[in-house]
Here is the input.
Amino acid sequence: MMSKRIYMDHSGTTPIDPKVLEAMMPFLTEKFANPSSIYTEGREVRAAIDEARAQVAIALNAKPEDITFTSGGTESDNLGIKGIALARKERSGHIITTSIEHHAVGHTVEHLGELGFDVSFLPVNKYGQVELETLEAEIRKDTFLVSVVWGNNEIGTVQDMKDIVKVAHKHDVLVHTDAVQAVAKIPIDVKDVGVDLLSLSGHKIYGPKGIGALYARKGLKLAPVQHGGGHEKNLRSGTENVAGAVGLGKAMEIGKAGLETDMPRIKKMRDRLVKGILELDDSYLNGHPEKRLPHNAHFRFSYIEGEALLLNLDMMGIVGSTGSACSSKSLKASHVLLAIGLTPEQAHGSLRLTLGKGNTDEEVDSVIEAVPQVVRKLRKMSPLGHAKGGK
Amino acid sequence: MYSDKVMDHFMNPRNVGEMKDADGVGEVGNPTCGDLMKIYIKVKDNIITDIKFQTFGCGAAIATSSMITEMAMGKTVDEALKLTRNDVAESLDGLPPIKMHCSNLAADALKAAIEDYKKKNPGK
Here is the structure.
């Protein structure tokens, strides 16, 4: 039994970095003024938001005026996609997205389909990659937006975003990307890659929950989703989440630096974890072996089920997640796992482990030992042709 | 989400295993979520003298399989046939509504095993 729990669900959420909390505290205590107020206290808080906005911009190689604060990744996805679509003169035209998006993009695009837009969901290959030929073939004369998740939250596959943007721009199509999982894990340079819109979230990068941002390059016309007092240049009304914005700014700053300091270490641990666990018979890695987020490990184990695996690990003090049907509210297997060609039965035995700054080599060792132990225990209980004895 | 009883049956399942010389075998799959349950019974003088299960499924699936084998052991074949999913769920101090279908699977697998036994032993 582990005395300290081993947390490997960083793609689910992350703990707030102490430096982020420190930056936020004044704005949760004495600096409580409304940033729209014209007196001293208000102006001081307004300046703090401006600084946070600049921190977010710098981390993306964008300009502060291109950044809008939102309540999180989901709202940023909504604002980015609906913002472009509903700014158009008519509810017509074609939007392309993929079959492996987070629901914040997928359901938003589906909704726009119900409002009258034409929508397409691109298939992906067995690694979860969008193929450029497939994308180009899908683009029509009336296509105006493509949304592709930069780093997938489940299987970790990282898309060739620069090439995708090239193809889309060749046909005058805008590109939005859900970079919620990719930010602070891989280098993100919006100028270099050329994306027109990008969503990010605080609580995935050691910042607080309830804050995110949307990058929208200059010159785009977006319609607001949330109306009100005209905040964020009329794009997103509502009194600013000051502490959240300050926290996000700090988290982006720390995250950008962490690409050099934390990520290599995390990637080494992840690689060792994957190698160790794949020693087990009938175990597989989902997603692209190399073009994947450096902290993400996503496995499937034949003949066993993910929720049972997770609960056993939980009892042993290890925290992960799964894409099995039994663990979802809808009782449907993860659409991402089905999109890469797994059968529902294969998707059943999946385990996602996502590492973070707080994980150690000792923890990786413990998990390498624990996971096969649990899988073997569950296989003994399973009626399916299971690995007898063996590794 | 799960009661203490469910967690106990899940972490320490009773009667796990295969039975090479079973008198009845029932295997059912649940289309709702893809789980599979297999139950083996040994019957003497109409009484279930031994029972084993194998399950491919979640915490609730394992727990309900374990519980129903415990409940069926020692019962007559006809008494065991009367076990319902509610009996199983109640014995486990309840299941979350979304997991009730697992208890269905356990009851169905036991019924299938008993039906298989009856087919192989007509008139008994």
The longest helix of chain B spans residues 100-120.
